[in-house]
Write a structure and sequence with these properties.
Order of helices and strands: HHEEEEHEEEHHEEEEHHHHHH
Shape: elongated
Largest sheet: 6 strands, antiparallel
Number of domains: 3
Radius of gyration: 33 Å
CATH architecture of the largest domain: Orthogonal Bundle
CATH class of the largest domain: Mainly Alpha
Strand order of the largest sheet: 1-2-3-4-6-5
Number of strands: 11
Distance between the termini: 128 Å
Length: 334
């Protein structure tokens, strides 16, 4: 995809292009610093797919790593992971072919709805955790877990995507700081290699954002944010949203521990504790329906019965007076 074409014609210059003689680009659905994502048609298998494209500005080393990570991501087969079908090159462009998920990112969900109920957030976190556990079992560390990289489809299934900067969990680990600063673990800021617990930290930040409705320290610039992440304590959900239980706050804070050894050993372990805590929190937060006490109903019925009795007494008195008046009238006539 030559940059001159993109500059002159924008999206129209690329729409309809066929990559590798097989994938026809139909619609650009996202773009960022690492490239673009397109909805495309696999004309060989007659199905819709999503394609991530690295443009000609990416250097050769990044292209090779992109292809390597596409192959690693393809090894992670799980219902909560966006499946990678293919990778290749077309001219100057490297591309990755993935499952097309029709839905919305968690970033968009939070932007539209604000904070989610803790139990709803925990169910989404549990699905992302299942995807991460599958990736870690396959030897892949994601390194960029964030709401924008989770798509929720029309059935409510969360799918983790964008393994483009993932790292091999087995073998040499790179120390280059790559990822989104707002969701990166403290040890990565220090230049240490990522581990599975680095992904747990990022998942903790996602959980925080879903429950609070915004990321921690949202008002900070990147430099200040990274400094606080290195020197400060784990952010507290109870300071961000009223009504959050101490248990939920404690579980999320453990996932966000400064020291990786202080975090949960796996994403699944974190998700299970968050689910349990949120279920207890939801149960205690639901007030029972207000019912009228039985004795109140009795008082009302007693009040009605008394009224009827009084009316009956009045009628008897009126009738008695009428009869008395009638007898008195007859006596006068006599």
């Amino acid at each position: 995809m030559p940059s001159e074409e993109r500059a002159e014609g924008g999206e129209d210059a690329t729409e309809g292009r066929v990559l590798a003689g097989r994938y026809r680009l139909n619609k650009r659905i996202d773009e960022g610093g690492a490239g673009e994502v397109w909805q495309a048609r696999d004309e060989r298998l007659d199905r819709d797919v999503a394609i991530k494209i690295l443009g000609p500005s990416a250097d050769e080393a990044f292209r090779e790593r992109f292809a390597d990570e596409a192959r690693r991501a393809a090894s992670v087969i799980h219902p909560n992971v966006v499946t990678v079908f293919d990778e290749g090159r077309d001219g100057a462009d490297a591309f990755m072919v993935m499952e097309l998920v029709r839905g919305r990112t968690l970033r968009d969900v939070v932007a539209d709805r604000g904070p989610l109920r803790p139990h709803e957030a925990a169910r989404l976190v549990a699905q992302i955790a299942a995807a991460l556990d599958a990736a870690h079992e396959a030897g892949v560390i994601h390194c960029d877990v964030k709401p924008a990289n989770v798509i929720v489809d029309q059935q409510g299934t969360a799918k983790l995507t964008d393994f483009g900067i993932a790292r091999a969990a087995r073998g040499p680990r790179e120390h280059e700081l790559i990822g989104t600063a707002r969701y990166i673990a403290p040890e990565r800021i220090e230049g240490r290699a990522p581990t599975e617990r680095s992904d747990v930290y990022s998942l903790g930040l996602v959980a925080y954002e879903l429950i609070a409705g915004r990321p921690p320290n949202a008002e900070m610039e990147t430099e200040d944010l990274l400094r606080v992440r290195l020197d400060g304590r784990a952010p507290s959900l109870r300071l961000a949203r009223v009504g959050i239980s101490e248990e939920i706050d404690r579980v999320v804070a453990k996932a966000l521990a400064r020291d990786p050894q202080g975090r949960y050993a796996s994403a699944g372990a974190f998700a299970r504790e968050l689910l349990a805590a949120s279920q207890r929190d939801d149960a205690t937060g639901v007030l029972p329906p207000v019912t009228r006490p039985l004795r109140a109903r009795g008082r009302r019925e007693f009040h009605v019965d008394t009224t009827i009795a009084l009316l009956a007494i009045v009628l008897v008195l009126v009738a008695t007076l009428a009869i008395f008046a009638s007898f008195q009238g007859r006596a006068l006539d006599a």
